[in-house]
Every structure is written in structure tokens, then in C-alpha cells.
Amino acid sequence: MVNDVTLETARAALAANPAVEEIDLLAADLNGILRGKRVPAASLDKVFSDGMKFPRSVLCLDIWGHDVLANGLVWESGDGDGVCKPCGPGLLAMPWSERPRLQMLTMMEEVDGRPFGGDPRQILKGVVERFAALGLTPVVATELEFYLMAGDAAGGGRPRPPAAPKSGYALDGPRVYSMEELDEFNDVLTAIRDACRAQGLPTDTIIVEFGPGQFEVNLNHVADPLLAADHAVLLKRTVRAVARRHGLHATFMAKPYGEAAGSGFHLHASLLDAAGRNIFDDGGDAGGEALRHAVAGMIELMPASMLIFAPHQNSYRRFLPGCHAPVAANWGYENRTTAVRIPTSSPKARRFEHRLAGADANPYLVVAAILAGVLHGLEQRRQPPTALTGDGYGGGQAVSAALPTDWGAAIAAFEAGAETLGRYLGPLFMRAFATCKAQERAELGKRVTDVEYATYLGSI
């Protein structure tokens, strides 16, 4: 792992930005929502010495910000504080801010210094440390899809594609890989890239995806999964903030339009040994035994991990037939219909692409769950089913395992897999995440939708 920020490097960053008067301290909760505090820049030394304190339960709130009483972190423990310490890439620019500010990621500890098991970044850190104990380093890159919408979409409660900014044409159909559409949205997309560069986020390709106003940003590989997840979290914040400055609304909601493509979160990964050799490389096109072990472990833990990859009610709309999202636990070579794809590459670049997660998922937890599957396969020397050829959505299912494709089944599978998955992610997380999602599902289950009123109110 790369070294986390130090007080010295943070002081240097602040000194290089003398106009900065405030710092945003950020910590990701279980839903991937950034929570924290805005503090005076003069408090920097105190942040490093004392940390940022707030209740541990704050990182385990539900999607609306309500306490989840069933997780045992509120009344039973006196709703005690945790301590968030600076971590990750350090003090970074906020180019979208109207006044000069810097931001810094933090990670929660217990008051006695032990890792807090409900902090998503701590959970990933624990998985990465297990790889380090084996002399292995995961190399990770992420791809995130999102929609740009009319600026009033969120306030109006309805998604609405924006008009093309330059010509004003309606975004009424798929324009995948369209260079014209990239030109139309050049101002906001260039601003996103510039803001990423100012923060040191290693953005690579930006493309137009299938949906109206849908784009994908790829981040380059880094030999530190924690840093890769940091980059993904900061990219989400950047896209949303820059879009607002351009009068647009950006969303990473998994399926904002019922008839259009969902937004995915794909992860590419390989494994380096202590000598820097890719252990998936056997010199040929198939990849070595370690690759097959990794694939097998990911597939075996996939049903239990589905709730992490698809954490919300809306997430499961991505898995309807014909929606270009995997619907079974399977794998294949150069096959985009499978959950795990082995891309064509040189042997030295042999890697897998995990294609199951939605863009609405928490990057720390997605990376942790995927790498937990890899660890499981390596440690248990598991063997995968036959690689699937052809249509993974509807054909060849004899070599595919079923996945829970509705929210209730995913919660049940997560709870059923508590022993195996919890071995890598920890019992506190397993309890906190299950109760968080159960509370979210129960609350949404009480709400009658507009479509139900339109369908039933006048006819039954």
C-alpha cells in the first residue's frame, strides 16, 4: 500500500494554497455517502493529533441518514464516538468550490486506536493487509458510468435528459461512443477532467454510453486497492459537483430510466508477487492456475456479495433481461455477458474484469468484496466452472450459478453467507450492513408509488 498522508505533506499542501481558509474532512459511510465536517485550515495540526470525532453510528446510517437501531451501535453502546484520522492521498483541491478550499479523506478508528469495523475503508484495508501477508499486491482500476440530467431533475423528483448544450437537440436515443455527443458536452466533461487532474485522480478514457446523457469515466490502474477506491469515491464527488456548476445534475443511480441502460461499476484487477510479477500470467492466453483460483473464489462468494454490488431497491432493475448486466455467477474469455470477463491482453497484462456492481455501490465495499472472493479462491485453491462461451444472459447457464436478482433475496443471501464472507469483511460490518439494508427495504415497502395509484386507484 502507498503511504497515507502525513502531517508534513499536509502542511506543505496547505502552504502551497495560502488562500485556503477551510478544509472538508470526509469519511464514507456504508452507502458510500460522504459525511464529515468543514474545519478551519488553522486546525490542521489538531486534526492530525486528535482526529475528527463523531459517533460511530454515523458511518452506519441508512440512506436517508436515520439511525439503524438494530445494528447495536446506538443505544446499546451509548452511541459512542469514533475517531477519524487523515488517510489516503492527502489534502486535495476542490476546483468546483466558489471559495478556495481543500479536502481530505479520513478513516475511523475506535477510541483505543483499533480499526472500526463499520468503516468501509477500514474493511477494505483489512482485506488488503491479508494480501500483503501473502506477499501479494492487487493492482486495480475502476470504470464508473453515470448520467448527466437536466439541472432540476433531482428537485423535481423525475429524471430528465438535458438538451445537448451546444445545438439543443434532444437526447432521445442511444449514441454510444458518439464523438459528436462528446463535443456537445465538451465543457462539462473537460471541467471534470481538469478537476480530476487538480486532485491527482488518474482519469483515462471518457466515452458516451448507451443511455441518454450517459457517460463513462475510466481510472488508470494503481498498485494499491485503497487508493483505487479513494479515487473512485473522489471521482463521484467531482462529477456531481462539477455538473452542478454547469447547471446539470449528475447521478450514479443504477437505473434512473426504466427503458435505458443502467450504470455499472466495473473493476479490473491483477495480482503482483513480491518480485513484481503478475501471478495471473502463465505466458499464454488462458492465464495461470492462480487466475482460475481467483475466478472460482469470486464466483463462490458472488451470491453472498450481491447485496454489496447491488445495495438498493433500484439496483435490481439493472438485472432485467436485455439490460446488458450480468444475471448469473459465471465467467468467460472476452465475453461481456458474463459476471467475470478475462479480457484479451498480452500475458503480462493478464487480469480479470468484474462486471456485476452498479455505479450506486460503495467503491470501498465493492473492491473489498471482490478481493475477498479472490482471497477465498487462492487460499482454498478453488476451481471454477467451465468458462462460458456465447450468451451469458440467456444461454449456457449449465456452467452458471444463480444470483439473487431481487433485493429481498440478496439480503437473505448476504445473511446466509455471513460466516464465509464475514471471515474477510468482519462480523460488525456483516451485522451493520444487513440491518441497514433491511431498514431501507422496510421503509420503501411502506411507500405507495405513483404507478400503483395510476394503475389501481381508479380501476379497483
Output the CATH class name of the largest domain: Alpha Beta
Structural class computed from helices and strand pairing: alpha+beta
Helix content: 25-40%
Number of helices: 13
Give the biggest beta sheet: 8 strands, mixed
Tell me the CATH architecture of the largest domain: 2-Layer Sandwich
Q: Calculate the terminal CA-CA distance, rounded to whole Å.
A: 61 Å
Estimated share of beta-strand residues:
15-25%
CATH level 3 topology of the largest domain: Creatine Kinase, Chain A, domain 2
Q: How many separate structural domains?
A: 2
Features of the shown structure:
globular; single chain; 16 strands; Creatine Kinase, Chain A, domain 2; 460 residues; alpha+beta
